[in-house]
Structure formats: C-alpha cells, structure tokens
Amino acid sequence: MEFSYQTYQRSFQQPLQTRYGPWSIRRGLMVMLEDDAGNIGQGEIAPLSWFGSETWEQAQTYCQQLPRQLTDAHILSIPDRYPACQFGLGSAWEALHQNSVSASVFPEICGLLPTGSSALSAASKLWEQGYRTFKWKIGVDAIEQEQAIFRRLIVALPPQALLRLDANGGLTNESACRWLQLCDQVMDTLRIEYLEQPLPPEQLSAMLSLSQQFQTPLALDESVATLSQLQHCVQQGWNGIFVIKPAICGYPHRLRQFCQSHPIDAVFSSVFESEVGRQACLRLAAELSNPQRAIGFGVCHWLSPDE
Length: 307
Ligand SMILES: [Mg+2]
Known about the structure:
By secondary structure, this protein is of the alpha/beta class. It is about 35% helix and about 25% strand. Strands 10-9-8-7-6-5-4-11 form an 8-stranded parallel sheet. The longest helix has 15 residues, at about 85-95. The structure holds magnesium ion (MG). Magnesium ion binds near residues 168 and 196.
C-alpha cells in the first residue's frame, strides 16, 4: 500500500494551562494509506511528549524515513518508543481494512473547564450546551486559591453535575490529602467523580495508599500513558479508574486485546486530536470505555476549527 503524510498545526483558542505550563499549538501528522484498488485509510499522529510519547519532531522523522510503499510488516514493526505513530498508522490500517465504520452510540462526554476562576462561567456555558460531567485542572496555582475557587464551583454547578479534578501529577502527598479531605467533605453538595493523577507516575504505591484512605476515587492518567505502563499498574493491583488516551497508547489492536482481557474501569480521553484521530479514538471508546462514565472528549471548544 502507498503511504503518504502531511504535517499540521492548530492553535488553541486560548492556551491550555496545566502544571506543565501553557499549551498553545497542537502539532501532529495526518497519515494516509492507499491500496491498489484505490481504497484509502486515514490516521492521525498526535504526540504528547510530556506524557512520555515521542515528540512531534521524532514522529515526523520516523514518517520521513518510511518507504513510500508499505507492507503490513512495516505497520506492525513500529518501535514502542513511537506510540503515537503506532496509533496513527495502526488506525489508518484498520480504516483501510474496514469496509464500513460503525457509527456507534457514544457515552456522555466530559467537558474540560479552564483553570482558575474562569471555570465558573465556562461551567454554566457548558451546562447549557448539555454537558453534565466536567473536568477542572488543579495543581497549577496555590492550593488555598484553588480550593477557594473549588468551593464556589461546587455550589455554582447544579447538584446533579459530576466533577472530575485533574492534578496532572502535580500534588505532594500532603496537598493530595488536603484535596481528598475537601472532596470527601463536599460530597453532599456535589459528587466528585474522581481525582485524576494526584502524584507523579513514580509514586504509584503512595497513590494506592491514598486510594484506601479516602472515599473520593482516584484515577491514573500519566501513570498509564502507554500500554506497558497500563499493564504494569494493573499488575501492581490498581483497581481504581484508568484514564486511557488511545492516541498515545500505541497500536489500537493491542489496546483492544488488553482491555478485552482485563475488565478495568477505563475512561477514554482526548489528547486534542483533530477529526481523523478523534473518530478513531471514539470508535475504540465505544468498544472499550466504561459506559457508566463520560468520555473525556469534550475539548472541541478549545481548538480553532479544523482546516
Ligand atoms: Mg489527566
């Protein structure tokens, strides 16, 4: 099959503030496979290097050295250090070999709020658009400041809303305890669905013990960026929630095999892909994400429109 690719970049409407700093441009690659009959399969490579995937430059270099004519063996032999390339080419290959792409029913979608106090007005806007689950990043500003906004946010949201907090691994054990205490305390006002990645990935045992001390559930995200990390955390006995970002998790067929053989509580989530990658992720989410939980794809309002 013939292989071609194109780089792209898209701007955020406003930079996304996380504890990794501001993110203002999403760069990626669109890949295309065409067979002799003229069938086309598209895929998207959307790296997220601060989560441990290859960088955009590495992905581009990898695509550059690939021959124009690819065999299945080429597609299946992308090294594990290129998980976003594995996903992009793997999903293009799947798209090429599936005659019709099933339009499944997707679970509810979680809307991402901006950090800081702009979360308050954004939450009511997203509520009006039909969102019922929201995610708010913490660990960016001082804890006193963030907890003050949090207290306003939980009363501003209708009681049937669900809120997820995401620390991106930016808390200490002490500040994680302060957050979890507060989440447990406010349970009657608003349900905190979970706190995502309170501590850095290397502190798995500390997160395991936190998960036993508090009622508010914990989710792993950075800890399970790649399939081998996911396997490791399952082996270590994590039985909380797993946030899975399929676009950086490697080959879709391997992720499918793993999730089908391990009944984990998985929440599929976006890395700000464009439409091609998003559709591939949503197909996997429809198959594998826990249908009781909203999927983390409510991010379209963050990027400027696809070109
Ligand atoms: Mg996260």
